Amino acid sequence: MDDVVVTCRTPTEGRTGQVKIPKWKYDSIRRVILDEIEDSETGRVRFKDLPDAVRSHLTSNQLAKLGSVTWHVTTVKLDMEVEGELRRVSGVRPQTLCRSL
């Protein structure tokens, strides 16, 4: 299944702008991000809380296969922003995300 990949657009300064990750990793992390936003009372989630949320939602076997949780969360989050699925809440620190309307 690892041969199916998602090309993530990651507009990070000094980077090529694209990275490929296995689809199961992308889908797993995307689902956690969306669930965290949906389950929050405000419809928002702090970016810094997402790695711990991923760790709590995935099995130990999935986490072992995932590799760096923080790197994958950042990559998927950036792609979701580029795709217009997420947006940063303006003027809020630490970085906070919500669904784009």
Summarize the structure.
With 101 residues, this protein is of the alpha+beta class. It has 4 helices and 5 strands.
How many strand segments?
5
Termini separation comes to 32 Å
Q: Which stretches are poorly predicted, pLDDT < 50 over at least 5 residues?
A: none
| Structural class by sheet pairing and helices | alpha+beta
Largest sheet: 3 strands, antiparallel
| Shape annotation | globular
Q: CATH first level: which class? A: Mainly Alpha
Radius of gyration: 13 Å
**Sheet with the most strands: spatial strand order:** 3-5-4
Number of continuous helical runs? 4
Quick tags:
single chain; 101 residues; Arc Repressor Mutant, subunit A; three-stranded antiparallel β-sheet; 5 strands; 46% helix
Describe the structure.
With 101 residues, the chain is an alpha+beta fold. It has one domain: Arc Repressor Mutant, subunit A (Orthogonal Bundle), CATH 1.10.10. It contains four helices and five strands. The strands form two sheets. The protein has a three-stranded antiparallel sheet with strand order 3-5-4. It has a two-stranded antiparallel ribbon with strand order 1-2. It is globular, with a radius of gyration of 13 Å.
